[in-house]
Specification:
The protein is mainly alpha-helical. Helices cover 71% and strands 4% of the residues. α1 packs antiparallel against α4 and α2 runs parallel beside α4. The longest helix is centred in the middle third of the chain and has 32 residues. The two termini are 27 Å apart.
Length: 139
Amino acid sequence: MYFCSMKKNNLKIIAGILWLLVGIMLISRAISWILEIPNGWLIISILLGLLIGFAKYYMVFKKVSLKNINRISSFKEEKISILKLYSPKSYLMIVVMIVGGITLRHLEFIPKYTLFPVYLGIGIAMILGSFLFFRLKKL
């Protein structure tokens, strides 16, 4: 028996909740920078964020979500350790993305309003990707 074992569907739901929460956090961060957007650029920034979000979802996050869902579904055990939520490669990618985001936010020469559409877009893509985890049948 593994550390904190659970059924496959519960593992998928936890993964979906994590994606959803991270997406909400990224969008919240973007919204906190909204007052830094130059006059007249808010609509363009939002539209750019939406474009980035849907493109990132369809080109990357949808495939990553489905791959992770199918990986979890393929486990033979009835109960699976929560540590198997993601593959080792995915854990590495998560660390790189977190470090990259922190680095971008702390670079003085990058204005926050330029990060607004990126954070908004990635947040939208993560929320869209999270919805796939809540479908409990094998995809």
